[in-house]
Amino acid sequence: MTKMVSPDAISTILANPSPDSSSDLPEIIVQVVDLKPTGNRYMFSANDGKLKIKGILQSSLSSEVISGSIQNLGLIRVIDYTLNDIPTKNEKYLIVTKCEAVSPALKAEYKVEVKNEETDIGLKRKHEEIGIVLKPKQEIQTKSAAQIVHEQSGNMAPSARMAMTRRIQPLVSLNPYQGIWTIKVRVTSKGNMRTYKNARGEGCVFNVELTDEDGTQIQATMFNEAARKFFDKFELGKVYYISKGTLRVANKQFKTVQNDYEMTLNEISQIEEAINEAAFIPETKFSFVPIDELGPYVNGRELVDVIGVVQSVSPTMSIRRKSNNETVPKRDVTIADETKKTVVVSLWNDLATNVGQELLDMADKSPVVAIKSLKVGDFQGVSLSALSKSNIVVNPDLPEAKKLRSWYDSEGKEASLASIGSGMSPSTKSGARSMYSDRVTLLHIISNPSLGEEKPVFFSIKAYISFIKPDQTMWYRACKTCNKKVTDAFGSGYWCEGCQKNDAESSLRYIMVLKVSDASGEAWLSTFNDQAEIILGCSADELDRLKSEEGETAYQMKLKEATWVPHLFRVSVAPQEYNNEKRQRITARAVAPVDYAAESKYLLEEMSKMNISM
Amino acid sequence: MLLLFVVHCMDTSNPAVFVNAEFLKEHVGRRVRTVVQVIQSDGDKVIGKSTDEKELVVKGYPPNPLSTFVEVIGIADTTQSIQAETWTNFGDTLDVNSYDKVCRLANGDHKHLFI
């Protein structure tokens, strides 16, 4: 009977580094290749067609080589051996102590015939990685290990194999310029399938919110084919390995998670459920907003996280839902933080009955509570409301919690705390308020296109005028009495629709748009007559005269003089429809010169706040 | 704004440390800058109140006229006096509190931003 190379002989040897003579090992027949004398012994490589390891024949076997029994490219049956580590390299070394020749030299180096081209490549690479210690860890660099893993785990579940052959990256490292990645995430929110119709036809879409182990979140969207394919696959709360999605900069209008990017998955994307991942709990990552900084978020789409000391917990109330007459349990929890302000958080349903009760029971101990994903409303100025995705942690093990605790124990307990809402009256128009309330950066405004969706929101900003377009419609002709736009009257003069009379005279009033910049970004600001007059330092009529009498250069000079001057603005922000497009409109309601003493105070205060949170 | 002013006028070849009376003690022998409220002005020196309410002596020849607040840049020759090289009138009103805070920031965690 002709003996053949034992399949996976090398693997068997690797798996049994020190067999004793009584151990039940299968027959090990390998091919001897690269047979070379070294001193009075012979070294070789043992080949099983798939793997090779370096080895040496014990000196007692040298005679067999000399006699020609053991030949290069011949087969030997390894009867007794030891497998040692090569100390400097990550390789194993086979010391054959007893063997017998079973076949003379074969025509060539034995190779196992495999269908896959890939394995041939794998084999070639094997030459360099003989006897690698196989570590089934997830971080294996895989081109060559793919082969090893395939042999070792051929029958294992696909997801486990995927875990071994792919490197998992944290969500925070994903970007559109990286082609190949795999992430391991839990579905923390799943939207409904929506259908849409646009110029290109009809379609369906849904999205999911994914969270990884570090707590980073990203939104993933699927359209049409992909949506249908994956809608049932994605289950809320389950963990998946995902790869082959595309990333792009997030559309701020629709995002609810904190990530600059969003993901789209299509038909070629790979989604594999990770079984046995009950232990994979994404860490809840918080980015807290101090209570006195909640103002700018009122009625916005962006959800906030807060942390505070519980001041009081209300009993459960039953609110009747108007839509279906159902009653919903609700509980209000008042919290306070180092800004010496309090705010009311409304908890609903399970949160009201479970966590709410827990907080009521321990309210006298003034626990610290951290809450993620709250909606900011304007009830009583500023109010917070929990959603189904809101997450509450009582007395969390966070540095911010420790700071809060020590603040509360030392001064907060006795301090007089004011409700954040009491300082705000949303119906107030500009001017009446200080230029320092609701101070925001331009970036805060422009990055949130849904600001002021229900009713306009007001902010204070400090910005430099960076550009005034000379060729814009700077002004309109207005009625001297009521300031409404007038039209040319029949004959001479002007007709005012509002006053229902003709007037020989009219005045020009500014409707100027200018570009403003601050350290965070830039934006276009619409201004009306009063503000523009302050900015330019002359009335519209005077500027018109300057333009016609002294020419274009003098006119542009006047605009230039107003450029790069800093101002304090009180602005209102609301989205506006313009040619079927939704655009954000920022309007200046008041303008004031920068008060440097007040500005210094404000900046120093902001700096000291940063120090507290550091 | 105060800090803006500093950035424009800072001669980095010969930097002067922002001090009040407290920090002056740490920089004896070095070039310093500070603002004082003029209490008394003799021909060759000015007695001033520092932004942290201590008395300082500024030696040299102050400008005429001299406003209520004056900034001096010079060498700190003792823990309580400065040999002035440059005098700048800072006007009759100043938020001393903000200036004092800047001194503390400039000598504290943010020292590296200034010198």
Per DSSP, the total helix count of chain B is 4
Strand order of the largest sheet of chain B: 2-3-4-6-5
Give the DSSP E fraction of chain A (strand runs of 2 or more residues): 35-45%
User: Between the first and last Cα atoms of chain B, what is the distance in angstroms?
Assistant: 19 Å
How many strands appear in the DSSP assignment of chain A?
29
Total number of strands of chain B? 6
H/E topology pattern of chain B: HEHEEEEEHH
Main sheet record of chain B: 5 strands, mixed, barrel
Low-confidence stretches of chain A: 116-130, 159-163, 423-433
Description of the structure:
- The complex is a heterodimer of chains A (614) and B (115).
- Chain A is α+β, with helices and mostly antiparallel strands and 614 residues long.
- Chain A has 14 helices and 29 strands.
- In chain A, the strands form five sheets. In chain A, strands 6, 7, 8, 9, 10, 11, 12 and 13 form an eight-stranded mixed sheet that branches. In chain A, strands 21, 22, 26, 27, 28 and 29 form a six-stranded antiparallel sheet that branches.
- Chain A starts with 8 loop residues before the first helix and ends with a helix.
- Chain B has 115 residues and is of the alpha/beta class.
- Chain B has four helices and six strands; from the N terminus they run H-E-H-E-E-E-E-E-H-H.
- Chain B starts with a helix and ends with a helix.
- Chain B is globular, with a radius of gyration of 13 Å.
- Chain B is 24% helix and 38% strand.
- Chain A binds chain B through residues 594, 596-597, 599-601, 603-604, 607, 611, and chain B through 1-3, 93, 95, 97-98, 101-102, 105, 109.
